[in-house]
């Protein structure tokens, strides 16, 4: 759920007090980010990237962007997550695009749980680009509720992955300011969150039951995927919008390979698979079903 840095980041645009990002360094960073993250940085993003990466230079005690580029050349995997965190902004919320959750509650989860009970097997959902955890924990809420309603004993879990170390750390903690719970109704707040006290006043932590259902792991969508089993649904919302066309095509083909027959792929409200894949049918608002 990462969004590229935007022109509205005035503080970053200023980029005051630090080395400048030269043309050669920016050209390297653009190519590096494109190859490693699938994100295309336009010429107009140079000042913004400079402002964001200045913080990283200070943290690493590096003298300039040339030294940072050398670091990426020497050990790209070690720094890739931090770089992705610097040039992206995690934009997410609980129950964002509620129609997706409505479909899960009304149709998909009851059907999947019944099918798994009859035929065996496990239920798996993947939140690809989970950001700070709001999406997988919202999925866990509706999954836990469906399990409670049906009395199911099916092995059901949610995998949550992201490239950003900071986002993953926040997701693992599962602690959020109360004002971030705007998408959660009162009944779910009472059922699935524990209010903080003392130093944690104004914060809420997700219920241990939700944490049991969610496994959080680092993953670069453009690199190798270690998962062996297939998924009933993949949520990849507001992630591919910044990828170039070839990257999207490769990613959708890989998703098709990771989905069960007739499995579901959920995209963000401004994303589309039109002209990018023949493996899926559009069956709802940014909801796609694998054809076979």
Looking at the structure, what is the overall shape?
A: globular
Overall pLDDT confidence: 91
Give the termini separation: 28 Å
Strand order of the largest sheet: 8-4-3-9-10-12-11
Main β-sheet: number of strands, strand sense, barrel status? 7 strands, mixed
Number of distinct beta strands: 12
Count of alpha/pi helices:
11
Name of the CATH architecture of the largest domain: 3-Layer(aba) Sandwich
What is the H/E string? Answer: EHHHHHEHEHEHEHEEHEEHEEE
Low-confidence stretches: 1-15
Instruction: Provide the domain count.
Output: 2
Question: Helical amount among residues, as a percent range?
Answer: 40-55%
| Topology-level CATH name of the largest domain | Rossmann fold
At the first level of CATH, what is the class of the largest domain? Alpha Beta
Radius of gyration: 20 Å
Proportion of residues in extended strands = 15-25%
CATH superfamily of the largest domain: Vaccinia Virus protein VP39
């Amino acid at each position: 759920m990462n969004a590229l840095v935007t022109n509205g980041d005035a503080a970053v645009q200023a980029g005051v007090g630090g080395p400048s990002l030269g043309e050669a360094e920016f050209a390297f960073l653009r190519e590096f980010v494109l190859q490693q993250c699938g994100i295309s940085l336009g010429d107009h993003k140079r000042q913004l990237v400079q402002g964001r990466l200045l913080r990283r230079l200070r943290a690493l005690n590096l003298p300039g962007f040339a030294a940072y580029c050398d670091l990426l050349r020497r050990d790209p995997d070690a720094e890739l997550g931090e770089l992705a965190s610097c040039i992206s902004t995690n934009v997410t919320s609980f129950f964002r695009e509620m129609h997706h959750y409505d479909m899960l509650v009304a149709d998909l989860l009851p059907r999947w749980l019944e099918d798994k009970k009859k035929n065996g097997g496990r239920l798996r959902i993947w939140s690809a680009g989970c950001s700070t955890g709001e999406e997988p924990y919202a999925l866990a809420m509706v999954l836990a509720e469906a399990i409670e309603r049906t009395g199911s004993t099916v092995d059901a879990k949610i995998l949550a992955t992201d490239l950003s170390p900071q986002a993953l750390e926040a997701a693992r903690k599962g602690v959020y300011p109360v004002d971030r719970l705007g998408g959660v109704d009162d009944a779910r707040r009472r059922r699935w969150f524990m209010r903080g006290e003392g130093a944690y006043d104004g914060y809420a932590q997700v219920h241990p039951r939700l944490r049991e259902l969610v496994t959080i792991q680092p993953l670069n969508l453009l690199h190798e995927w270690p998962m062996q089993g297939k998924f009933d649904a993949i949520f990849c919302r507001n992630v591919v919008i910044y990828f170039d066309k070839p990257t999207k095509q490769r990613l959708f083909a890989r998703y098709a390979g990771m989905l069960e027959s007739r499995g579901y792929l959920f995209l963000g409200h401004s994303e589309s698979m039109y002209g990018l894949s023949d493996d899926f049918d559009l069956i709802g608002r940014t909801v796609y079903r694998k054809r076979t």
